[in-house]
Design brief:
This protein has 119 residues and is an all-alpha fold. Helix content is 73%, strand content 0%. InterPro entries: Cro/C1-type_HTH, Lambda_DNA-bd_dom_sf, TransReg_Diox_bact_type. This is Helix-turn-helix domain-containing protein.
Length: 119
Amino acid sequence: MDFKQMVGEQIRKIRKLRGMTQERLAEQSGLSFSYISDVERGTRNISLESLGKIINALGVRPAQLFEDIDEITEHSGNGEIQNKIEDLITLLSERQIEEVDFVLTLAREFLNTIDRKTR
């Protein structure tokens, strides 16, 4: 898989995580639907300007676009878990600290309840 395909896959993943269609991403970014489609398939060489528009439309930090593009993660035994953790990071990254704390508290309580039941 080449770099264009990896970037396109990450854009698609974040877009879907955000509940956006390609049409909505195109509208939000000011780019055409066909351009977004080509980028996601890795058949279009994306410019930095267009990449910036897509990142802004997705509402993520630029680094988040590249966090998941790591062959080590894809080939490790925990790749699926790592992908889920990265999905959570993406979901929580734009939230207020109080919201993140609340989700963290809920997760801890949930996992502690499961741990107590399995003992």
